[in-house]
Amino acid sequence: MATMANSVLLKHLAHGAFIGSAVMAALCVLASEPLLAACAATVGGIVVCSPTFHKRHGAAPWPALRAGFFIILMLLVATAAFTDRWFMSYWLYGLPLLAYVAVPRRGAWVAIVAVVAIAMFTVYQASGIAQRHQTIGAFFLTLLLSLVLVFLLEFKRRQLMPLRRTDELTNAASQQHLTSDLNKEIQRSEREGTTLSVIMLALKPSNDAEPAGADLRSILPQIGRYLHSHIRDFDAYYRVADLQFLIILPGITSPQASRQAQALQHGVQQLLNSHQLTTTLSTGTAGLNIGDDANSLQHSVTGVLRRAQQHAGNNSQPFNGPNQEPRT
């Protein structure tokens, strides 16, 4: 709930920033300041291309567009420096922090160095303005504070990374927790004498020439919601690859898991058909056997899925091992 609330708050802030940029650009046009209006419009473009504005904007081509808008903004500020527009020097204070948001990590450092060069040239050009000496100190202080903030954000992000449990796109549990969670379920199954099965579901574009199933990834949130609504509350599903999911089913035998896999396959296929997507959907199931651990069980269901994918068209295949019934 806290993550959802933060996401909604950031989305509202992004929309507010876009509206503010649009209003500022309009006012600058009315004031006959086209360069300043272009800067405001470019900032609005950066905001629109951010994943905070819309969650789908984290995938291509939006990051490239965001970086392109930032480069345009830097060129506009550099143009202001060449044309002695001193009043636009205040834009330099926000560029280092904006570089961290708009440009990929490695490119951000190159962008910051370029911003420093533009700032030094701006101060050099303003040789007749008394405020230029104050600008040097204020700019480097702002740059230092921006770098400290970036360091703290990265430090906190790396601290919280192990605690991240779900995939943002599908709300499936993260793959990095799969092995530990599956081992816990195996131990519980052995301790309580119950069965355990897993299902692996994989989507693949029917035409291998298609660009990495971009259309499929666009409906992954709907597939995630479908899986979430068609499994039990104590079942768990994980996104183990770009277009693959693994579902843990405690207390379910292999035949029961096979029937559930077919039902899920049918439902997901209907969802894909409603979006007119041509794809191959395969499922594999495996039950827990004596001596299995998380790795061997994942290996079994992966092998079953691979055999199912070798057949033409959609296919579902169970593990050819002993079917487990509930122990007494």
Automatic annotation (TrEMBL):
The chain crosses the membrane at residues 35-53, 65-82, 110-130, 136-155. SUPFAM superfamilies: Nucleotide cyclase. Residues 311-328 have a biased composition (Polar residues). Residues 306-328 are annotated as: Disordered. Gene3D superfamilies: 3.30.70.270. Pfam families: GGDEF (PF00990). InterPro entries: GGDEF_dom, Nucleotide_cyclase, Rev_trsase/Diguanyl_cyclase. Keywords: Membrane, Transmembrane, Transmembrane helix. Residues 194-322 form the GGDEF domain. This is Diguanylate cyclase. It comes from Marinobacter psychrophilus.
